[in-house]
Amino acid sequence: xxxxxxxxxxxxxxxxxxxxxxxxxxxxxxxxxxxxxxxxxxxxxxxxxxxxxxxxxxxxxxxxxxxxxxxxxxxxxxxxxxxxxxxxxxxxxxxxxxxxxxxxxxxxxxxxxxxxxxxxxxxxxxxxxxxxxxxxxxxxxxxxxxxxxxx
Length: 151
Description:
This protein is of the alpha/beta class. Helices cover 36% and strands 14% of the residues. It has helices at residues 5-13, 31-41, 81-93, 108-116, 127-138; strands spanning 18-22, 45-49, 74-77, 98-101, 120-122. It has a five-stranded parallel beta sheet with strand order 2-1-3-4-5, sandwiched between helices. Helix 3 (81-93) links the parallel strand 3 and strand 4 (98-101). The longest helix has 13 residues, at 81-93. 36% of the residues are buried.
């Protein structure tokens, strides 16, 4: 399992509100753009991290995690799996509390390293799916199938 419900809940509700979204650009057609909007609506500060360092959703962007001049709580990763491991390592290096690999982003060695470094981690999941499921559960409603699929 790449992210149990307790870890997902902890990252979304207890790990802090500043999320660096690696791969977020001004391209409205990319999944990162919409997910970042959902995170903002959930009360998170979204920090774009992309080589273009564009301002997205009103937040200035940075070319790398190391360039962000303030504390980042969670690093949300929208890069391909081959590039994701080094991003997880950078997240640990900057003192993030958690790493979230998006749907389709899988690096089991990075998952083990990141958890071994004491960070919470979720892999192959999407907060834009998990947030509504968490909100439904908080209201006592059912959690839809697939929102907590085991691995």
